[in-house]
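Schema walk-through. Below, the input block comes first and the output block second. Nothing else is stored per chain. Lengths vary across the set, and this one has 108 residues.
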Amino acid sequence: MELKNILAVISAAFLLVGDVTTFWQLYKLVETDSASRGLKRPKLWGIFAAGGNNSSGLPLYLLKRRQYPVLHPSESLRAELNSRKKKAGIGLIFAVVGMIGFICFIVL
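--- output ---
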């Protein structure tokens, strides 16, 4: 197997890990946020916001959550949300690096 093909497979693995991580962190972020705001069915909101082909669920969730403010967020809630945001960012970085590498090694 050529080195180029091996690097393409490694890049695809980076892309897959990044996508799965970003999806999971976005799901948990929305689920935690919606539960803290008192929305009904926070797990469903998490799936709705994180899933979808064109990610139309996230803007709809952001519009819906305006009606349910968090009056007194705890420090643990803030810390968890910030941690999940950072992990989602790292997942996006993995996905972008994997996509760039995959395209470079397939095309070149």
